[in-house]
């Protein structure tokens, strides 16, 4: 069989490269098809949903418009019910590349609140801090749960219960309480994002720390290994693949947490604030561009984590 | 029942005075399960002397693995007594009396072969230079020199199991407990490893306790074959091998070999009469 294999598909050297390219080529087509279908559906929905306003205008002003003119109008309204992809993309471009991140005011450079990069950073900074806090807390809780039976029985139900409370309901309370004790800015938002991101880490780490088989544990018992040695040499390394799986869920949850924390508290900056002001003034294009920015940020964060995961697991010898 | 072995055991190779490495007297072990008590071992009497290669053979549930685990202090008997090197199994473990080889190689995937072998050495507190020296020695002993920097997944199943044997040998325990170490490997690899194991045994003068399902494997390797039967787990026969110490693979076609294998099979059949 191997004799018949085309040289280009043989592993190693240039063959590997061309195989990689053809793999991308193969997966590109289905991706493009899916994107194309979504865009087509989006346009169809935009026409349907924005049509009412256009027809209303025609009636009020007594205009005569052809079907194609009506369709063109539905796709270029200033405050459409559903903006088109091009409108959202244009807004994204104008508020990122089209605006400086800093601008001069009264002789000094300040952040430019028209820049979506600035707002994204206002959300990303507390997200990352909250994610770090949540991850640390989640790992510590998991270690406690695995090593202490009382904690196993008592903490897990609370952790689960904590996630059933709508974050939107308690976010304002947390902000108000923290404000009253003098905590403002980054930290209150971070705490809410930590609140959302610790849970997947707890669940994943508990599973990971318990992943060693009875045989793995017996082996260490035959060496009379201590609990600490069992933890550092077996449980912790064995949990690393599980940790990364939960980190990817956790960081997306952390971003949602920060945005939600910005919503009910009248934050002036951040993606949540953009969503809020957008909805006040009916700026649907602004809302959608903030949503897309949030999605891009989440994808970037998960992507970076995936990269770190690959590097770490490869370095640890897990990768094949 | 084990007494039978003492009678025809005189044919064994050595006549020098032997000190028992493992001595079990009236050993009982009952597991409490949800379906009620299960008697895993009943009235097991067995003496294993220094330098013996003892195989435990019998169907699943006959307690052969359980017995090995009792020796290793991974299970504790509910009756009778057992000593390892004259101590309780727990004391013996703390004195590093044995190395244990499990059914699967159980190498940590995040450690190289070298680092896997160092695992017990790290825990037992050997210094770095000594660790390196020992790793080099045991890798040569199991014919894996040059593979120290590889990760487990880069090795074949047979090589992984050899690495796990190296790990068990690294801290110089005189007793090697092996629980179906080659059970998951194909017959050809298994033959090869059996040959290597005998060679290793001859070179290191270890005492070996070896659990297996395979009659040819038990007869080929052992100086003493312990036949066990299930429900409750007990010894039905102990056979002292009359085969010479030097055993090429084709010894398995000799009448002597087949005779011992026949006796093992008879012992297994007798044990099974309970079931059907």
Automatic annotation (TrEMBL), chain A:
Protein keywords: Cell membrane, Membrane, Transmembrane, Transmembrane helix, Transport
Membrane-protein topology: Multi-pass membrane protein
Transmembrane region(s): 28-49, 124-146, 158-178, 190-209, 242-265, 285-308
Gene3D superfamilies: MetI-like
The organism's place on the tree of life at top rank: Bacteria
Localization terms from the record: Cell membrane
Pfam families found in the cross-reference section: BPD_transp_1
All residue ranges annotated as the ABC transmembrane type-1 domain in the record: 120-309
Similarity-based family: Belongs to the binding-protein-dependent transport system permease family.
Protein name: ABC transporter permease
Organism: [Roseibacterium] beibuensis
